[in-house]
Specification:
Layout lengths: L1 H11 L5 H32 L2 H12 L1 H15 L2 H24 L5 H29 L5 H30 L1 H10 L2 H8 L5 H8 L5 H13 L1 H30 L5 H25 L5 H20 L4 H29 L5 H13 L1 H12 L5 H18 L5 H11 L1
Helix pairs in contact: 2-3, 2-6, 2-7, 2-8, 2-9, 3-6, 3-12, 3-17, 4-6, 4-16, 5-6, 5-8, 5-9, 6-16, 7-8, 7-13, 7-15, 11-16, 12-16, 12-17, 12-18, 13-15, 14-15, 14-18
């Protein structure tokens, strides 16, 4: 009986599948390079300009592509080889990241070069993110989606932990340009792991039979706006992301200008926050029973909004890392639940389109929010901005605290 139980356990384990090993290991190295770059680029901007406006501008250029690239990438993912798209995106991103130190060596690097390269990297990163998330329901069975999404989020978060600590340490030891070279090389492994992934043949054949047209895009838009639950959640996340955009874009500036942190201390802040996020990932599997998903998502957003208030009154590295952990860990739990919900509700044949449109709408607040926060922080203390946005986020979440029963019922029916 014990032997039979072990065989059943192994059969149900995601780790016996080749797709799991290839997908998650390749994704980790990709995410590690990306997170090192995310830490290094604002550090470089600050070293060159010491300006919150410049950092806000960089954030604007790095987040704008998620608005207009995401729906396009979703359409492409529904009609072309996702493996090919991922490989191309990884190759180009690695080359672009490595281009910054090369330009510095040749004394050709200027601030507009960094803006342009950062914008292009963001374009291909947005495409990669949409295609990568679209592949998950094609690689794994529906009953394994929550586990896969949890491990995916674990990898994303642990890459923040290792990438931030490693990036902060290396910046202080070898300089930001050599760190960018290392980050560029981290995009290579995903290329090889993606080649050997297996996608369901029938899905691929059905996709190839369809012609790429504008009508398919409008089908995705129609599905999203006619679905009450997805429509309401998209609007909620859009509004909450106004505060998230401000924090993401100005955390390095806040840490250096207000708290006078060095690169290793900043890496520690990101690292400890990532450790809290990892704990949240393991916790979400125990707290979610499939019936309390929506309530759990709302609770996480409320806790996250309180984290903004804590960050606004932080006075040293320890209080800041606590605030960032309080703000970001619930967001990670929310992301796991939200991603799994979308994968269960949206039909596979249009998942890329609908997912891309949702990402576009949810992310469209980030660029303007980050840019405006950079502008406002030049005349208003950034602490006041963080505190105000945290309070406004709490109010928005309160207004959306309970979705109508009809919307909740639609989730239970379509995800069953």
């Amino acid at each position: 009986m014990i032997a039979i139980g072990r065989r059943i356990h192994l059969k149900n384990s995601i780790w016996v599948e080749r797709n799991t090993i290839l997908y998650l290991t390749g994704t980790f190295t990709y995410k590690l390079g990306d997170k090192i770059f995310v830490l290094a680029i604002p550090w470089l901007i600050y070293e060159i300009t010491q300006s919150s406006v410049s950092m806000g501008t960089m954030f604007l250029l790095q987040t704008l592509p998620y608005i207009f690239i995401s729906p396009l990438a979703g359409r492409l993912a529904d009609h072309f080889s996702q493996k090919t798209l991922l490989i191309l995106c990884a190759i180009i991103q690695g080359w672009l990241v490595s281009l910054i130190p090369v330009l510095s060596i040749t004394n050709a690097l200027q601030i507009w070069n960094i803006y342009l390269i950062g914008f292009l990297i963001a374009c291909f990163n947005a495409s990669f993110s949409v295609v990568n998330s679209t592949m998950i329901p094609l690689l794994f069975r529906k009953d394994k989606l929550l586990k896969i999404n949890s491990f995916y989020q674990f990898i994303d978060t642990s890459s923040v932990l290792f990438g931030s600590i490693l990036g902060g340490f290396l910046i202080s030891k070898i300089g930001v340009y050599y760190v960018l070279l290392l980050a560029g090389s981290a995009f290579i492994p995903i290329i090889f792991s993606t080649i050997f992934l297996r996608i369901y043949d029938e899905i691929v054949l059905n996709r190839k039979k369809k012609a790429l047209s504008l009508n398919h895009f409008f089908e995705g838009v129609s599905f999203l706006f006619q679905h009450p639950l997805l429509r309401a959640l998209t609007l909620l996340i859009l509004m909450v992301n106004i505060a998230n955009g401000a924090l993401i874009s100005m955390l390095v500036y806040f840490s250096r200008d207000k708290l006078l942190l060095n690169s290793e201390q900043l890496g520690l802040v990101y690292g400890v926050a990532a450790a809290a996020q990892i704990a949240a990932i393991f916790l979400v599997n125990f707290l979610s029973n499939g019936k309390n998903t929506l309530q759990l998502m709302m609770i996480n957003l409320v806790i996250s909004s309180l984290g903004f208030i804590w960050i606004s009154i932080s006075w040293n590295v320890f209080t800041l890392l606590i605030g960032v952990a309080i703000q970001s860990a619930p967001v990670i739990m929310f992301n796991v639940l939200n991603r799994t919900l979308r994968q269960k509700i949206i039909p596979l044949y249009m998942f890329g389109r609908v997912n891309g449109i949702m990402i576009m709408l949810m992310q469209c607040a980030l660029p303007l929010s980050g840019f405006m926060t950079g502008m406002l922080s030049a005349i208003i203390d950034i602490r006041y901005i963080f505190a105000l946005l945290g309070a406004l986020s709490f109010i928005v979440i309160y207004l959306f605290r309970s979705l109508p029963a009809k919307q909740q019922e639609s989730y239970k029916i379509l995800s069953s």
